[in-house]
Amino acid sequence: MVPAHGGRAAEPVYRPILASRRGELEALSHLDGAVTSLLAPVIQVSILDSFTLDVFGRLPEGLLPAVDVTALPDAPETELVRWDVPLVPVIGLAESDRRLVAHGAAARAHAHRSVVRLRVGQDRAGPDATTTAAERIWRLTRLVPEQCDLLVDAGDVCCAADVRVAEPRIRRLLEWARRHSWRSVSVAAGGMPPTMSRLPTDEPVRVDRWDWQLWQRLADLGVSYGDYGVGSAVPGADQPGDRLPTVRYTADGAWWVYRWSRRGGRGDDRFADLCRTLVSAPNWPTAGAAFSWGDHEILRRARRGAGAGSISNWAAWGTSHHLAHVLATLTSPGRESRPGPWRSAQPAPERGRPARPHRGGETRRAG
To answer: What is the pLDDT at residue 356?
Structure first.
């Protein structure tokens, strides 16, 4: 994977939201240690099992995942501090008092910080109500704003119309966010369609990365970038890949989706044909197999050096390449849309206390 230019240590520039599936977790486990400080993944845990806990304990040194357990029951076994692995809790505005207290304990046990996830489509209260919800989080977790990274999650953004609707909502939310001294602010969205079943087969199909276009339109605000990897932001959407051999391959501004249904021969032969098509395409990186672990695995299949793999493998290889591509893009020298430091629009408030609202804020909406 391509490291940041200059080899200097840096704050994370990329916050991908990933499902806690085998493919996505395997991609994280193969990250190059040179870039772990630039990546701050958010892992959405929907099922708690021994595999998930084991993978969290084997992630590369320096990679500190943020973990969202909103989908799990509010019970003692889902308290992150009990997992005994380094992580950052992800906190929603509507968490129960008990879970907020537990998240605060988890934050103090490891990184002394948290991620506050504000969902554009769900958290639609006005600015004053949103501030009240944030103050409740800080009070019950015993954290202050400077210990909290704000993640503004736009959810599913899959067409130009979605981008036009989302942009002003996010700008209003970020105007509210400037009232408080957040540790950092990121904007995430998901541009991948929820299913691939209607796409043509046996040819590369271009799918626009609308999440990337949305972030570029917000570049003047200096917020960091987030997305849903090669997965969809739609709850319950298909796992990356389907019954046909499928690879979702990230390029500048788009994904190229390869779904191969050619009959004849063994399944390994069919997937090898897919991979040969991919590695001969213009979007295959100049670094080739050295670009990421996922690219290395794809090239092995193109050369018939291994079997076709499974749905989880295809998701892992596509996710691995995606993470490398996004980081290489965000850290490329001279990039104009590279995220700058978040700056409040007014002097920082007293530590641990919110700033006074702007005049007229009572009538504005936060989303």
So the answer is: 38
Nearest to 182 by CA among 349, 15, 366: 349
Taking phi over 0 as left and psi of -120 to 50 as alpha, with beta for the rest, 176 belongs to alpha
Tokens describing residue 31: 């990250």
Beta strands at 205-208 and 184-190: parallel, antiparallel or unpaired: unpaired
pLDDT tens for each residue of 228-276: 999 999 987 765 556 789 999 999 999 999 999 876 556 688 899 999 9
Chain position carrying tokens 């050619």:
262
- Please name the helix (run of DSSP H) or strand (run of DSSP E) that holds residue 339, with its range, or none: none
Phi then psi for residue 171, to 5 deg, are -60, -40
The encoded tokens of residue 221 equal 């605000």
pLDDT-derived band at 354 (thresholds 50, 70, 90) equals: very low
What percent of the chain has a predicted confidence (pLDDT) above 90? 68
State how far the Cα of 36 lies from the Cα of 144, in Å rounded to an integer. 26
Residue among 282, 323, 318, 312 nearest 298 (CA)? 318
What amino acid is encoded at 37 in this protein? S
Encode pLDDT of 4-18 as tens digits: 333 334 578 999 999
Q: In which element (H, E) is residue 257 found? A: strand 254-259
DSSP 132-160: HHHHHHHHHHT--GGGEEEEEEEEE--SH
Domains delineated in the chain = 12-336 (3.20.20)
Q: Are 209 and 256 in contact (CB under 8 A)?
A: no
Tell me the pLDDT tens digit for each residue of 9-42: 457 899 999 999 999 999 999 998 889 999 999 9
Among residues 152, 239, 154, 158, the alpha carbon closest in space to that of 192 is found at 158
